[in-house]
């Protein structure tokens, strides 16, 4: 669904204005963070990994390690301050466009003008404290703890992506839980069903892979909110 979200954003022009004011500055800032990390830390990490890695794998694992640190720093520095509200608007607009405005109305006003073809323009003010994915200190700590997995030859990178994706998946669907009015217990019961637990892990893992792609990671950050909305629509169906 993160990939579906990307395609959805490309093919639905009503979402484009939400991206314009955020995408370029955030992309430039994220690139600056990554450039600094690669200039200062990449070669030392490669040299360290070369002590116990096979030829070539040290470079790959070091790349993922640095990109993981970059994703963590970008998340802490930029996402909550500059992106989260835009993600809320993207999510809600997709839900309205797909016919689930009754859920969005649980948290914010939605215009009744059915002749208005732009779902974004139908959205009223956001609900107080609206968040797409809440800041999770536990997730940050787990990400820091799991980063050294990238030092493990071959298996380390997939394990890192799967385990971080397992934690990220439910957070990426947080807005849906808010629209449904779930209590903490209802949310946990919903997430922990066997089928959805694996679905959330794969959703989060694909999201983490996209976040490790230098440059367009900020684009994927925004389009993943559309993917989350499409997934929520699928759940409702």
From TrEMBL:
Keywords carried by this UniProt record: Membrane, Transmembrane, Transmembrane helix
UniProt superkingdom: Eukaryota
Membrane keyword on record: yes
Gene Ontology CC, one term: ascospore wall
Transmembrane segments: 23-51, 58-78, 143-166, 200-222
Protein name (Swiss-Prot/TrEMBL): Uncharacterized protein
Organism: Baudoinia panamericana (strain UAMH 10762) (Angels' share fungus)
């Amino acid at each position: 669904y993160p990939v579906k979200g990307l395609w959805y954003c490309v093919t639905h022009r009503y979402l484009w204005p939400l991206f314009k004011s955020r995408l370029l500055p955030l992309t430039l800032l994220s690139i600056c963070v990554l450039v600094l990390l690669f200039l200062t830390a990449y070669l030392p990490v490669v040299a360290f990994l070369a002590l116990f890695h096979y030829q070539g794998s040290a470079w790959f694992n070091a790349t993922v390690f640095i990109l993981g640190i970059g994703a963590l720093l970008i998340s802490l520095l930029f996402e909550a301050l500059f992106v989260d509200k835009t993600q809320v608007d993207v999510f809600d607009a997709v839900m309205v466009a797909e016919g689930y405005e009754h859920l969005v109305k649980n948290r914010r006003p939605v215009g009744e003008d059915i002749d208005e073809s732009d779902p974004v323009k139908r959205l009223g003010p956001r609900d107080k404290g609206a968040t797409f994915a809440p800041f999770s200190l536990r997730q940050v700590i787990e990400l820091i703890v799991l980063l050294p997995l990238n030092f493990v030859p071959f298996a380390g990178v997939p394990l890192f992506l799967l385990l971080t994706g397992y934690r990220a998946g439910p957070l990426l669907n947080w807005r849906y839980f808010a629209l449904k009015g779930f209590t903490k217990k209802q949310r946990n019961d919903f997430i922990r069903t066997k089928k959805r637990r694996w679905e959330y892990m794969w959703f989060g893992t694909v999201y983490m892979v996209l976040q490790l792609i230098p440059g367009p990671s900020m684009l994927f950050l925004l389009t993943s909110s559309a993917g989350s909305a499409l997934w929520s629509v699928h759940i409702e169906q």
